[in-house]
Amino acid sequence: METITGFKKFTNAFYVYKFFKDFAFIYAVYVILFRLRGLSIFEVSILIAIWSAFIVLFEVPTGALADKYNRKHMMIIGMLFKAIGFGIWIFANSFSLFALGFLFCAVQITFCSGTQEALLYDNLKKFKKENQYEKISGKGHFYSSIAIGSSMFLGGFLGAYSFTLTLLLSSFAMVISIIPIFFFHEVKYRKTSTKEVKYIDYIKNAFKESASNKKLLNFLLYSMVIIAIVMSLDEFSQLFYEWVGLPIMFFGAAALVMMIFDAFGSRLAYKFNKRYSNQNMIYLLSIVASILLICSLFYNSFIMLIPFLLIFFFIAICRVLVESGIQKEIRTDQRATIMSINSLLVHLSAVFLAVFFGIVSELMSLRWGFAAFAFIILGFSIFSIFWNLKRKYKEAIKNKQ
Predict the structure, then answer these.
(1) pLDDT band at 193, cuts 50/70/90?
(2) 40 exposure class (CB count in 10 Å sphere: 0-12, 13-18, 19+)
(3) pTM, whole model, 2 decimals?
(4) CATH fold for domain 2-183+209-400
């Protein structure tokens, strides 16, 4: 009974953390904030590139720190940094101050990205519930998506009234998210050696394990291509809304619908995995997403919002399944480091994808920029399916011999 009660307390605390961590009203209007305070579109794009570069720079080292030291403390520090980052933007009126705020926000992402998933999995192992990872993680993504969608919807109205108030409330939500972290259990694991493992060895060993494990490598490549592209689609979604002629006042509503689709995709991922337990399924779902993106580009009409927003439902399912697949392939003492490597690859890819999107859109058109993303998703998914089938065929022949 005590174990069941402790498990429920932990999962409830995890859900509260996931909600408030992403309950930031400023998400809906931060680009408008930059523009109204004097930054050009080019400067805004450079800021986003710098944000991704900060994440790439800090991602793996902070993941290794989380594997070596206290994960709860890393998450608490991370959320404090994000609160400070939003606070800096209250007073920012120059490129450098906005970049400084992005630095603090990037530190939060790198401190928490691999750490929270590792801490979740190890807490579930403590309660002997690791087989529920997809369910708990998916439900956590559900609350996170609801938080993002609702805060963005309300953020549009708040931003129209006061950017200062929007940033203050966003910063306060980050502080609130620290409270449930204290209810997490810091799981102690046995070191693989009686000697202290050097900090850099965590990173080296994690990269070696990632490269030598074919299943793990497939999941990491999927994240680096598909997840990174969809993350970029999210960043450029406001450009799509403008292209189809959606009034700015409804941008927040569109973002909310997107997050609802994402939330339900995450929520249903574990059920989907039970019924269709096949690695190629993530590629088939990605093909569906690419077709939806192509369909959304036929006409610049409001109706094209439907296929565009549905993309996030299918990729949300894939994201949870890929995350679960990665967790099952790695050891406890390298869990946060490899999850951080995954995040690093995604954000590194996102930097180049953003530049690629900008070049294609500039030389051709915005429609072709989005179409290029669709063709990459489609090509990668088809190639991956045939590659996996070929590998399984070779393994079957080898087993018969």
Answers:
(1) very low
(2) exposed
(3) 0.69
(4) Growth Hormone; Chain: A; (1.20.1250)
